[in-house]
Amino acid sequence: MPIYKTITVSPTTSVYIWKVDEPEEDLASGIELTPHCQSRMDGMKSEAHRRAFLSIRHLMAEAGYEDHDLFYDDFGKPHLKDGNHISITHSHNFTGIIVSETDEVGIDIEMQREKILKIAHKFTPIEEYKTLANTEALIRKLTIVWGAKESLYKIYAQQGLSFLRHINVMDFTFEDSRTVAEILYKGKKSHYEIEFLEFEGFTCVYALKMMGG
CA distances (Å), 70 to each of 95, 110, 113, 160, 196, in order? Predict the structure, then answer.
């Protein structure tokens, strides 16, 4: 069972990433789903989706949780029954979770694709990134920005929040592997730390809400 990467963000916060390359029956072994999640999985037509779903349960086990420790609110945001914070993501053959005892957290994994160039204007002022050397660098940068905004959206979880108008990710270099962001929505401002990493043509971004922010 290949856990691909574990990142200790802080003494109270960890990221777990899985590369899904084993068959469904191997992933199902040793995993006990709640009736709700079993019926969700039974409704998945795609084997790839079912495998991703099961791999996330293995990631939760790495963090010391079982399926019945998880519940979702009306917005679709996942929560842990013990009060710790969790966020979940999956993209193609990678899945990831972030768990924190202390901070509100969000995580997103994205495949780096040229398609992002066409939609960039919908989520970020693209002029900011025109200085980049080549298209590949621009795709990488925009994917980090998109992943950051997805992660923040998962933390904030409020309808009407606009990636373009309400979420601002401060500029960064690839070498930084981190930046900060703010959300200004309905007159309220909140601040976040963002960290990112790239692997096998994918980008993983995770966000933590800053204390007092």
Answer: 17, 24, 32, 26, 25
Asked if residue 179 lies in contact with residue 169, where contact means CB atoms within 8 angstroms, the answer is yes
Pairing of strands 202-209, 105-111: antiparallel
At 16 the pLDDT is: 98
Angle 78-83-37 from CA coordinates, rounded to 5°: 35
CA distances (Å), origin 94, targets 17, 47, 188 = 7, 14, 34
- State mean pLDDT over 143-161: 92
15 pLDDT above the threshold of 60: yes
Q: Please give the order of strands across the beta sheet that includes 94-100.
A: 3-10, 13-19, 94-100, 85-91
Task: Give just the sign of the alpha carbon dihedral 6, 7, 12, 18.
Answer: negative
- Judged by DSSP in three states, 99 sits in strand
**DSSP H helices in 63-89:** none
The torsion angle over the Cα atoms of residues 79, 182, 209 and 201, rounded to 10 degrees, is 70
Contact between 209 and 155 (Cβ < 8 Å): yes
- For the beta sheet containing 105-111, the strands, ordered from the edge strand earlier in sequence to the opposite edge, are 105-111, 202-209, 188-199, 178-185, 167-169
Task: Report the distance separating Cα 16 and Cα 3, nearest Å.
Answer: 7
Number of helices (H), then strands (E), belonging to the chain: the values are 6, 11
